[in-house]
Amino acid sequence: MSTYHLTVVSMDGQDFEGEVQKILLRTIDGDIEILARHTDYCTAIGMGTAKVTMEDGTERKAACIGGMISVMNGEVRVLPTTWEWSEDIDIERAKAAKERAEERLKDQQLDKEARIRAEAKLYRALVRLGSARHDHQSDQ
Ligand code: ATP
After folding, report:
1. Domain residues of the chain, as ranges?
2. Which residue among 27, 48, 60, 139 is least enclosed by CB atoms within 10 Å?
């Protein structure tokens, strides 16, 4: 299968650079999959599990939240706000964040802005839990 050059640079630094077959990620308009020779394109990233198919056909998963993706002259740049490869996700931390957000959302007095923040935090935690490798830690 044809490949192309992908870079992933988040606020924390460079997370990936290399040849890949494809990337699938969630944009604000839904899931997109970029293959080689994709037309020039730019959009905002939503929150979801990104799947990167490497040159050798193996797939890696990551929690990919916010930012932009651009395709220009066959090069793909992903500039997420946060990007954590599956194996780097701290499951206990995500579970704790989920519980804090759920607790906060129980408060009937919460104003609109605080509710939106808590919902976003809950969604980030759910994306991380859904993207994490669960073979070494339990999510029960
Ligand atoms: P928390 O309350 O645990 O900080 P959060 O959703 O508020 O969660 P973010 O503001 O989205 O966290 O991220 C802050 C930084 O911490 C980013 O660099 C992000 O990659 C990292 N991060 C957040 N949660 C995790 C996690 N569960 N595992 C690994 N890295 C994480």
Report:
1. 4-87, 90-139
2. 139
